[in-house]
# Entry
Amino acid sequence: MPQADSKSEMTHGAFVKGLEGIVASQTALSLVDGEASRLFYRGIPIGELTQSSSFEEAIFLLWNGRLPLAEEFESFRKKLAQDRMPPREALEAIRAFPKTAHPMAALRSAASILGLYDPDSEKVDLESTRSQAFRLTAVLPSLIAAFFRAREGKDFLSPKPELSHSANFLYMMHGTIPPPEMERALDAYLILLADHGLNASTFSARVTVSTQADTYSAVVSAIGTLKGDLHGSANQKAMEMILDIGTPEKAEDYVMNLLREKKKVMGFGHRIYKKEDPRATVFRGIAQKLCERAGEFRWMEISNKVEKVMLKEKQIPCNVDFFSASVLYLLKFPVDFFTTVFAASRVAGWTGHVMEQRADNRLIRPNAEYIGPTDQHYLPFEKRK
# Structure
């Protein structure tokens, strides 16, 4: 094996497992302040947005770098509403998906199919990319609802353009227009998860589009990355843990057993935040309000006890997945659909990063540190052992 030609590949920079602490991109979309446990979208604290804004307005902010004027917002909202209807062919394909398929696998495939029916899907200029961003962000909830209803043996419901993005999502899932408090809870969820620096799925999207691949390919890459237990599906695993505990009285023993067996307690710890995830702080309040509305306090009581044990035994605060899991459960999303709702939010950030990458592109191609042999030679079959 040649040695000289691979020298630069072997010596550029120090190897950091998982790329932790490595700056691989610049972005103006969101600031994740790990030391102070703060999150900003375009300079605005996330708490202000969840309290006063809407998901549609947060999308505009991420894509444009500023809050919209009133007439701009109305035009933007109408454009999203117009793009919610999937192609007939995509709906037919979804109805043919195996009912046993994981919802994230169904969403990954449906998003890929979506690109087949966009005549401009191969265009990579900024104007076309923006149109594709509208399409993907608008239609992902429709694809999710289509698979859910197909799995339940129910007909697809066409989107209602007069509803907000969040209210329409819940309507298409369950067939009823949600009460304002449920609409607002989902709106807050979608805002809180829309972007988060150079997380794994966003990095996948930026790497894909840096090759000048189309926007649909970038989002499909991101969906595949989000599917993993160490990224997007942690919210599903957190709720499965809470359901497995079942009653508040069992929570402490359950967590202590996990710790004794050196197993991961889902929904705790974060690579960046040194204190509590600021999104978890907001979700704790939302979960409490939804529990009060439903008259079902068990999930909150279990969550509080699990959190108390983790803080006492490990001094590890909860992350965004922990209380957001109860929020999605109380909004009546099936547990195995939790990560798809995450994707319906994060697509706003993914496409924002795609536009940002296209505007100042360079192929993302890091080095690898070679650790294999360099003194081997080809041997014919008869001389191999």
